[in-house]
Design brief:
Helix content is 46%, strand content 0%. The radius of gyration is 22 Å and the shape is elongated. It has three helices and no strands. By secondary structure, it is mainly α. The chain has a domain of 66 residues: Orthogonal Bundle (DNA polymerase, domain 1), CATH 1.10.150.
């Protein structure tokens, strides 16, 4: 899971597949098979994306319920994973600071 998190922090992901024999490289299936390697990694990424989507969906349902009750999005407790999943939405009531000032005449 840690490795996938590092990948998600990247701006660009390049998938390099090895297509040659090398006795120093241990292969899970014991042979050079670039298509198999590519398919396995792609499937891992698909599972990770589905997990992220599930987290976002769950978080958004709870945030929507809070908003419909007139409460700000920040009133919903989210895991770090859920926060990452909904962060791109830029919800105005999620992270808001308040400054109170007093007007006075000079």
């Amino acid at each position: 899971m840690f490795f996938i998190c590092v990948l998600k922090a990247c701006s660009l992901l390049l998938h390099v597949v090895l297509c040659f024999e090398d006795n120093d490289i241990v292969r899970v299936n014991g042979k050079v098979d670039p298509k198999w390697d590519f398919d396995v990694i792609t499937l891992e990424h698909v599972f990770s994306d589905l997990e992220q989507e599930d987290a976002a969906k769950s978080a958004m349902e709870r945030i929507r319920d809070a908003l419909m009750d007139g409460k700000p999005a920040r009133s919903v407790t989210l895991t770090d994973f859920e926060k990452d999943a909904v962060n791109h939405l830029c919800l105005l009531t999620y992270e808001t600071g308040h400054i109170c000032g007093k007007c006075c005449r000079i």
